[in-house]
Inverse folding.
């Protein structure tokens, strides 16, 4: 029995047995990779009705870039489409054809950037993952929500595939098409549940915030995110990490290869810890015995040697740059009053989140709570706290739920609980 021949299970009536979602109701369509085929798809989706399910596949872990290597769409009256953006470079004609309708995207923050890169920018979104969080589902992956809400078991065996592969194997294409097969039904069922729980306006504000969010700025000192950095103990070793990370990044970007495939993080950390005195010692390290590491051994040694010779004044600082408050675990010693405020604020927000079946971080960003508690306004009033929350991008529904209790917490004189 195909999904089209069954009625999706209502969110409040879990299916007794999952139905495997193994086949596409319309069959597998040809990948769109010619101008004529793209024109046909643009016309088909322009003539459809209702929202459009949209997904994109990247080659994370294989390529340096975060570009989309496949775009999947589905719309009532239009069917499904698999579009290869690589031959076109720009899919703005397709984006324009559906720009005035709602786009259903699961985990929109993951796909919007790569879609925008090919000219597809929505004006309205429905994020099924974020909606699932607002509803308190413990697991909000697409397969989990489709199972919990609609009662279908999705295939996920190709989620980590190299989508830059050409031609794409047919089983991968079926998997990709299935990702949009049930999105429209999932969206409709979740909207019903949001309305029943009085959370629909919350969701609308959250979806609008996704589109209004400014572009993410590059992280300062991205090399500090190297896995295993806790083993690097001094500034000279940090300089080795930085030098190797930057050398690796240049090679990876030039070749469009995932940095970890050029040189693993483990090799960078091992070199920083061992501080080899010459190239021969470097290439004898365990993590440098792979073919990829040997291929660029001259570059790696030059990076290490450069870091070894840097004057102390040019060595990186021990801790990363950060414009926010210090780690909460240090507050009790540095500022007991701030620790008391943070403890009271966290407890109050957690209680509200539990009452509304929300993850605490979706009720209010933890960083916003920490900043307010560490440096509260001079005159703490409800209006002042409300303004602070708004300046830190809290949505109106979040402010309505938390401003009162945060105002009280900022004037709390209760003893601080131990902070993590």
């Amino acid at each position: 029995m195909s999904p089209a021949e069954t009625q999706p299970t209502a969110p409040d009536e879990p299916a007794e047995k999952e139905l495997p979602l193994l086949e596409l109701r319309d069959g597998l369509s040809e990948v769109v990779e010619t101008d004529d085929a793209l024109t046909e798809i643009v016309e088909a989706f322009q003539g459809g009705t209702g929202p459009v399910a949209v997904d994109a596949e990247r080659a994370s872990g294989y390529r340096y870039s975060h570009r989309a290597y496949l775009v999947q769409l589905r719309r009532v009256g239009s069917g499904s489409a698999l579009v290869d953006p690589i031959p076109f470079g720009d899919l703005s004609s397709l984006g324009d054809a559906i720009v005035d309708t709602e786009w259903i995207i699961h985990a929109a923050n993951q796909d919007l950037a790569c879609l925008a890169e090919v000219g597809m920018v929505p004006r309205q979104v429905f994020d099924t993952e974020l909606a699932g969080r607002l509803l308190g589902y413990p697991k909000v992956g697409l397969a989990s929500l489709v199972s919990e809400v609609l009662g279908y078991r999705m295939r996920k065996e190709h989620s980590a595939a190299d989508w830059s592969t050409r031609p794409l194997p047919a089983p991968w294409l079926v998997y990709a098409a299935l990702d949009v097969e049930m999105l429209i039904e999932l969206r409709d069922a979740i909207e019903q549940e949001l309305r029943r729980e009085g959370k629909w306006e919350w969701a609308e504000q959250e979806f609008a915030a996704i589109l209004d969010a400014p572009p993410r700025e590059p992280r300062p000192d991205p090399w500090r995110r190297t896995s295993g950095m806790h083993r690097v103990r001094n500034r000279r070793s940090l300089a080795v990490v930085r030098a190797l990370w930057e050398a690796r990044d240049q090679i990876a970007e030039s070749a469009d290869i995932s940095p970890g495939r050029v040189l693993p993080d483990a090799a960078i950390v091992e070199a920083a810890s061992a501080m080899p005195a010459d190239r021969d010692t470097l290439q004898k390290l365990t993590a440098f015995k792979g073919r990829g590491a040997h291929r660029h051994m001259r570059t790696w040694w030059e990076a290490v040697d450069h870091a070894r010779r840097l004057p102390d004044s040019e060595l990186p600082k021990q801790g990363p740059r950060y414009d926010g408050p210090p780690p909460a675990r240090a507050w009790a010693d540095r500022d007991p009053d701030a620790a008391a405020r943070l403890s009271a604020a966290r407890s109050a927000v957690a209680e509200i989140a539990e009452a509304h079946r929300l993850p605490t971080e979706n009720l209010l960003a933890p960083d916003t709570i920490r900043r307010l508690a560490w440096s509260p306004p001079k005159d703490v009033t409800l209006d002042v706290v409300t303004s602070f929350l708004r300046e830190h991008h809290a949505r109106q529904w979040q402010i309505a739920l938390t401003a009162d209790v945060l105002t009280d917490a900022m004037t709390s004189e209760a003893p601080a609980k131990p902070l993590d």
Summary: The chain has three domains: 3-212, 222-314, 328-410. The CA atoms of residues 331 and 403 lie 23 Å apart. DSSP finds 20 helices and eight strands in the chain.
